[in-house]
Amino acid sequence: MLKRPVLAANWKMHLGPVAAGEFMRSFLERYKPRPDRTVIFFPPAVSLASMTAMVRAAGRTDVLFGVQNIHWAEKGAFTGETSAEMAKEAGAGIILVGHSERRHVFGETDAQCAKKCLAAARVGLPFLLCVGEKMAQREAGETAAVVTRQLREGVAQVPNLISAEFLIAYEPVWAIGTGLTATPVDASAIHTLLRSELGAMIGTRAAEIPILYGGSVGPGNAATLLAANEIDGLLVGGSSLDVTTWIKIAES
Ligand code: PEP
Predict the structure, then answer these.
(1) What is the C-alpha to C-alpha distance for residues 251 and 79, in angstroms, rounded to an integer?
(2) How confident is the model at residue 1 (pLDDT cuts 50, 70, 90)?
(3) Closest CA to 49 of 24, 14, 30
(4) Which among 241, 192, 191 is positioned nearest to 214, based on CA atoms?
(5) Does the active-site annotation cover 171?
(6) How far does the centroid of ligand 1 lie from the alpha carbon of residue 10, in Å?
(7) What gap in Å lies between CA 105 and CA 230, rounded to an integer?
(8) Closest CA to 129 of 91, 156, 162
């Protein structure tokens, strides 16, 4: 089971192998292992193998790496895609599924997210499933319906969900990369709803599933969000790209 809080950096399409290596060298020097939390990086897939090799060579087991996306098939004629098996072989220990940019820029559906969660389970890796409403859905009072649908449909195909290892991230689409953040109270309310949905699916095990918040998190609001009820960690985009800023957040 992952230690909480879980501090996860989503680098999106930033930091190729050279820049990622420089970041990691500095991070490993300055961020000392802590037994009270989990730190995860989701670098671009091409940076993954060199980063995991660097961390292994440094004997650091406190940092986990993941991929930002996978295809659900094991292999095949899917130009540009990466399978869960390949991600695992390159050192991924976790798979991000259904990030808002995948859903809203690339048109990924709940059904595709479900196949990706299933593929992660097939190779024995945990997945981090992102859910979140758009501004128009929020204004129409549809937030609860949207996030519960994304959660239910996303995990629908995972066998033995009750014993599967997975995490959820609540990331309101309107807060990602915009400088707008859900208040801790508003975020807590959605996290409580998601926990209760999980409870209906997997009973008391729901308490063990980390639910992360994401959306314009930075060093100025990380600690307050982490202190809020039911927020078990943070998924951070823009503010994870600078090593000093990211260390401040990872130590919040
Ligand atoms: C993200 O990419 O998941 C994210 C939350 O981005 P940002 O922190 O930049 O809003």
Answers:
(1) 39
(2) confident
(3) 24
(4) 191
(5) yes
(6) 7
(7) 29
(8) 156
Q: CA nearest 158: which of 189, 126, 134?
A: 126
Q: Specify the pTM.
A: 0.97
- The residue behind tokens 């990086």 is 41
- Residue-wise pLDDT for 69-115, tens only, equals 999 999 999 999 999 999 999 999 999 999 999 999 999 999 999 99
Whole-number Å distance, alpha carbon 238 to ligand 1 midpoint, is 6
Residue with CA closest to ligand 1 atom 8: 237
First CA to last CA distance, the chain: 21
Which residue's CA is the closest to the ligand 1 atom numbered 6?
237
- Cβ neighbours of residue 115 under 8 Å, at least 6 residues apart? 72, 157
How many of the other CB atoms lie within 10 Å of CB of 107? 8
The neighbour count for residue 184, using CB atoms within 10 Å, is 18
243 Cα to the center of ligand 1, angstroms: 16
- The one catalytic residue among 133, 171, 191, 197: 171
Mean pLDDT of 200-214: 98
Nearest CA to ligand 1 atom 4: 237
